[in-house]
Amino acid sequence: MNVLIHNALIVSGEEAPFAGWLLTDGALIARIGRGEYVGERPRGCEVVDACGAMLLPGAIDCHVHFREPGLTHKATIVSESAAAVAGGVTSYIDMPNCVPTTTTLAAWEDKMQRAEASSAANYGFMLGATSGNLAELQRADYSQVAAVKVFMGSSTGNMLLDEREALRAVFADQPGRVVVHAEDQRIINEVTARLRPTLDVADISAHSRLRPVEACVAATERAMELAAHYGTRLHVAHITTAAETRLFDAADSPAGRQITGEVSPHHLLWCTDDYARLGARIKMNPAVKSAADREALREALRQGRLDIVATDHAPHLLGEKEGDVFHAVSGAPMVQFSLPTMLDMFEPTLTAHRMANCPAELFGIDRRGFLREGYYADLVLVERLAEPHTITDSEVLSLCGWTPMAGYATRHRVVRSWVNGGTGAMALRFRG
Ligand code: DOR
Ligand code: ZN
Question: What is the b/e burial string over 377-406, where b = at least 16 CB atoms within 10 angstroms of the residue's CB?
Answer without folding.
Answer: bbbbbbbeeeeeeebeeeebbbbbebbbbb
